């Protein structure tokens, strides 16, 4: 098996009928870049920036953040690097931010909600990202988006930061892309509206599964509901991909489901472009992609969306797996 995977090293990621896809990697710090490149990552599909914040004793400065982002951009030599802005709250705690304990943190003051409410802190991160964008293809990704208002507010702040940096004589990419992490049930209901505002989508299936099924990923009693084989989650994924494709923006996936070989044909069928996984899953996912033609994948996807239960979906996908 390992040897068979080696055959996919250094190869492009293409379907059996020649459609190009991108194998990207999820990282948590600049130190992870080497492992990603060793496993043949073509891009960084998710840099979880909160690790920079969790490892510190106080908010990392613009300089510190700039250094971390620049390092990754340079190492990728012009290949895309999607950096997610701070996703605090939910399951991610940062002690020095002194957030009040909430009854229901996954429904609370998390990610973009915190950041827009603390715009001065958020601007430090946006300025660092912009400055680093002079050194590679950095894209900004906004977590936990539920409405158009949020992405518009972020884009406005990015423009404010650009004006400041221009004034101060810094170089940056004027056309830096600002995309959305589609990971809330809300985002799956208005993907058409969000696609008009965003430069790209990346599907965060870890949260999307939880928010769609109203099941906490860490709660054993409801763990049986936490599965992307449920038709509710499959349809959410399908509608997000199709809305992005229709609007002509790049659609990727950076949740764990991107590495699930059973799901790969469905993602191909719906037109997803970038698969972002942990480093050890890159070659295996590239191999799975190579085993499907778009036509075969579409045939299977048509059957999958007609299934009624998660068990039926899973059985269908298992029977079809190569
Ligand atoms: C996700 O929600 O799918 C995701 C990739 O983000 P995280 O697991 O960091 O919440
Ligand atoms: Mg998430």
From TrEMBL:
Keywords: Cytoplasm, Kinase, Magnesium, Metal-binding, Phosphotransferase system, Sugar transport, Transferase, Transport
EC number of the protein: 2.7.3.9
Reaction(s) this enzyme catalyzes, per UniProt: L-histidyl-[protein] + phosphoenolpyruvate = N(pros)-phospho-L-histidyl-[protein] + pyruvate
Keyword Magnesium: yes
Compartments, as annotated in UniProt: Cytoplasm
Domain PEP-utilising enzyme C-terminal: 4-292
Cofactor: Mg(2+)
GO molecular function, one term: phosphoenolpyruvate-protein phosphotransferase activity
Stated family: Belongs to the PEP-utilizing enzyme family.
Annotated function: General (non sugar-specific) component of the phosphoenolpyruvate-dependent sugar phosphotransferase system (sugar PTS). This major carbohydrate active-transport system catalyzes the phosphorylation of incoming sugar substrates concomitantly with their translocation across the cell membrane. Enzyme I transfers the phosphoryl group from phosphoenolpyruvate (PEP) to the phosphoryl carrier protein (HPr).
Annotated protein name in UniProt: Phosphoenolpyruvate-protein phosphotransferase
Origin species: Collinsella ihumii
Residues of the full protein shown: 246 to 567 of 567
């Amino acid at each position: 098996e390992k040897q068979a995977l080696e055959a996919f090293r250094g190869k492009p990621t293409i379907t059996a009928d020649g459609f190009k896809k991108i194998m990207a990697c999820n990282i948590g710090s600049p130190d992870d870049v080497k492992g990603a490149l060793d496993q043949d990552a073509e891009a960084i599909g998710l840099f979880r920036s909160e690790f920079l914040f969790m490892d510190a004793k106080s908010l990392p400065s613009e300089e510190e953040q700039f250094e971390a982002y620049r390092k990754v951009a340079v190492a990728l030599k012009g290949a895309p690097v999607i950096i997610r802005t701070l996703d605090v709250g939910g399951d991610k705690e940062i002690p020095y931010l002194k957030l009040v304990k909430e009854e229901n943190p996954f429904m609370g003051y998390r990610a973009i909600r915190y950041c827009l409410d603390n715009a001065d802190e958020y601007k430090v991160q946006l300025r660092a990202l912009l400055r680093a964008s002079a050194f590679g293809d950095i894209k900004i990704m906004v977590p936990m988006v539920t409405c158009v208002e949020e992405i518009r507010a972020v884009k406005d702040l990015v423009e404010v930061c650009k004006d400041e940096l221009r004034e101060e004589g810094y170089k940056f990419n004027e056309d830096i892309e600002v995309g959305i992490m589609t990971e809330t049930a809300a985002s799956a209901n208005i993907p058409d509206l969000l696609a008009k505002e965003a430069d790209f989508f990346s599907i965060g299936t870890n949260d999307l599964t939880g928010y769609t099924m109203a099941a906490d990923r860490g709660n054993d009693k409801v763990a049986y509901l936490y599965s992307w084989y449920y038709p509710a989650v499959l349809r959410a994924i399908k509608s997000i991909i199709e809305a992005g494709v229709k609007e002509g923006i790049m659609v990727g996936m950076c949740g764990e489901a991107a590495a699930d070989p059973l799901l790969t044909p469905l993602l191909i069928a719906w037109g997803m472009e970038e698969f972002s996984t942990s480093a050890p899953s890159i070659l295996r996912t590239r191999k799975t992609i190579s085993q499907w033609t778009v036509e075969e994948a579409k045939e299977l996807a048509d059957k999958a969306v007609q299934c009624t239960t998660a068990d039926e979906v899973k059985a269908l996908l298992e029977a079809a797996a190569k």
